[in-house]
Amino acid sequence: MFNFKLEAIDGSVRAGVVKEAGYSIPTPMRVLNSNELEHSKKVNTSGLARFTAPHPVFEITKYLWPSTVNTFVKNGAASYGFQKQIEDISNKAGQRITLFHPILDRGLDINDRINDVITEMQLQINTDAIAILDRYNSNPLQFEDRLTKSIRSIEKADSPAEPMPILRLDTDDRLFGEKLKILLKHGIKIANLIYAPIKQNFQNYTNVLKHLKEEDIWIHMSELGRTTCKNSSLIHLMPMFGIDSFAMKSRPLPIGKFEKKFKAIKRFDAGTLGHITPDMHKKLYGEDLNCDCFVDDGRTLTSFIDEFNGAELLKSALICHETYSSYEEFRLSRTKIVRKAYYDYLRQKQYAYAPIKKFLNIDLKNKSLT
């Protein structure tokens, strides 16, 4: 079991602490997901670097095809293999707080039976929270009824895991706001939001701030993409909406043939909160990698690219670098929130300007902002 305590607010940005078994985990924070863990294993196996992820929270991200879900519903025993797979991944998390985030198609009708099957499966797995699924655009009464029944099932199983309702941000804003109130009514300690495009769903992002900004509830967001406004880091924009922790999306490739498109090399840069090309990097830092993470240690920009590219591990190395560097940057940003200096911090980040201006209409060039 864990608790969340809000410690400071600077504007719309929160700093809190997740407390569990004598440990205190500061937020905002980046969460390690199972896809990133696999990339770290590839790098470690190569012998080119020894990557150790410092993240205290781990998200198991798994996509469930509609046909797979229907099979589980028809035959509970069919889920045992999947359950064992999730349990094995959970065991690799070590002492980290472990969350399970099942990804299901928006078009799938997530009825009570599906939620019951997924809940029962989770009760057999060593995770610290039980994901409770919501039916797309369900009304508040339906939502509360399912939440109440799921909590009762968790208590009946004598599980120490916390109930973790999953809410989509791309739902009707009136329904979404009412559901947030229901979370508070039932004393929910963690809510799992599914990322949705900000512009199209802005009202729901403001609903999060309106209802949860000053509450002791851990707001975790899943399925985040990497960039917005071309080069800006999306994940580092999200604290502006009162979100406490973040996990990147991890979805399977579509079935069938597809043409693999070449993508220019881009590295996450904590100095600008952007994803920049080698040419951009050289203009800012020369050959210095501007990072002391495990995959960067002792390397220049050129040797990083050449060594990992030669071993066909460049993608994995870039992900490991981002995973570590982004996590450390959140730790630094937290000190600024506590000191009420978060806007001053953002002014030093070149790629924070565009998305904050676009989505929040805040001009960081305005020195009067506090």
Describe the structure.
This protein is α/β, with parallel strands linked by helices and 370 residues long. It is built from twelve helices and 16 strands. The protein has helices at 34-46, 66-74, 80-92, 112-123, 140-156, 173-185, 202-212, 278-285, 301-310, 314-338, 342-347, 353-360, and strands at 3-10, 13-20, 23-27, 29-30, 32-33, 57-63, 97-103, 129-132, 162-168, 190-194, 218-224, 227-228, 232-233, 245-248, 267-269, 274-276. Strands 4-14-11-10-9-8 form a six-stranded parallel sheet. It has a three-stranded antiparallel sheet with strand order 1-2-3. A three-stranded parallel sheet has the order 5-6-7. Strand 15 (267-269) and strand 16 form a beta hairpin. Helix 9 crosses helix 10. It is globular, with a radius of gyration of 21 Å.
Structural class: alpha/beta
User: Helix coverage percent of residues?
Assistant: 25-40%
| Averaged pLDDT | 91
Our count of helices gives: 12
Number of strands: 16
Rg is 21 Å
What is the 3D form?
globular
End-to-end separation in angstroms reads 36 Å
Uncertain spans: 253-262
Major pleated sheet? 6 strands, parallel
Beta-strand fraction estimate: 15-25%
Strand/helix succession: EEEEEHEHHEHEHEHEHEEEEEEHHHHH
Instruction: Please list the strands of the largest sheet in the order they lie side by side.
Output: 4-14-11-10-9-8
